[in-house]
Amino acid sequence: AEQWQSVPLAPPDSIFKLTAAYKEDTFGKKINLGVGAYRDDNSKPWVLPVVKEATRILLQDESLDHEYLPITGLPEFTAAAAKLILGSDSPAIAENRVSSVQTISGTGANHLGALFLSRFYQWGSAEKKVWLSNPTWANHQAIFKNVDIAPVDYPYYDPKTIGLDFEGFVGALKNAPERSVFLLHACAHNPTGVDPTPEQWATIADVFLAKKHFAFLDCAYQGFASGDLDNDARAVRFFVEKGVSLLICQSFAKNAGLYGERVGALHVVSTSKEAATRVKSQLSVLQRSEISNPPTHGARIVSLILNNPNMFEMWKRDIATMANRIIDMRKELFRLLTEELHTPGDWKHIVNQIGMFSFTGITPAQSKALIDDAHIYLTANGRISMAGLNSHNIKYFAESLDRVVR
Ligand code: PLP
């Protein structure tokens, strides 16, 4: 018999499928709003000027070689990355309570964090479960299933308000058994663009403490959301300050435009230096068996940027350039729909949502009509990547959206 007879053919990844369809389309005004990567005003990928500068410096550095990094990564990178997310004055860092490991971008941080929990979290006799927002980044389910943790949903998005179902969310936190693991998007929730307010975060943290829940914080968009690194880290820092048990998955894909370089980190915050030492030792063992050691190039770039004050300032400007372009697109789309086209519906959510994505609130049929009739590619749930819009195509998009919702 044939060797792989029982292997079923897997369906293609829906986002990659969408991109392939877009590429094949020969229509001049076609738009790709599926892609989760930043594009400039000419629809082109953008290499950050600070990354170009860092690359130039690395190329000239004769002392660099291609030896293996330590198992837990480039120490100058992980130390600076921890400060970036937790704050340079973080007591947790000062008290050596943070175990940081360089990972294969945010996906790798999610995986290593999930694997660590699967092995070492105090599950007791309970089934291994993780609570995920409904909806969430599609990869979350698969990442946890891979390490035998069952994903379950908590209410998050309310289609009626195109906003947060705060009561449903808090209700789920209160009703879950004590010490449950909840995954939270630290900022710029993917796919909805809907985040809790600071007051809501405070309530959420209180319930975490009361129920002794564990927060699995996924932070893929620090700085990219509001344009301000500290602002986007507020929820994470607040949870740490309050003493919620947690870990943080950090990605430099979006905020440094280093998608393919796979630069990220996992930070586990413990209550003591001793615990942090033990945690780090086990993370190191897991990492060794998974990837031996992480890649050098991207970590060197980010390390240069984070550890050099001038380059750090340059980076902040680059981040603001990306975030502000996206915020401008939100404002312009809102203006076109409400003031120029008088499109039926309340489009306030377009400007209230944050980050790369916007949930437009349109139906799967309307999304399909945008693809079929207007050559505008987006996922069936009505999510659009704001980065796909620019000064050249936004009018065509607004007019097409207006047509499908009328
Ligand atoms: N987590 C969320 C919520 C994301 O949206 C993404 C990227 O889209 C990631 C993690 C990880 O991305 P990467 O592995 O490219 O850092």
Automatic annotation (TrEMBL):
GO CC annotations, alphabetized: cytosol
Enzyme Commission number: 2.6.1.1
Native source organism of the sequence: Mycena indigotica
Keyword list, A-Z: Aminotransferase, Pyridoxal phosphate, Transferase
InterPro entries, alphabetized: Aminotransferase_I/II_large, Asp_trans, NHTrfase_class1_PyrdxlP-BS, PyrdxlP-dep_Trfase, PyrdxlP-dep_Trfase_major, PyrdxlP-dep_Trfase_small
Name of protein: Aspartate aminotransferase
Cofactor: pyridoxal 5'-phosphate
Reactions it catalyzes: L-aspartate + 2-oxoglutarate = oxaloacetate + L-glutamate
Highest taxon, organism lineage: Eukaryota
Additional free-text comment from the UniProt record: In eukaryotes there are cytoplasmic, mitochondrial and chloroplastic isozymes.
Domain annotation Aminotransferase class I/classII large: ranges: 29-401
UniProt GO BP: aspartate biosynthetic process
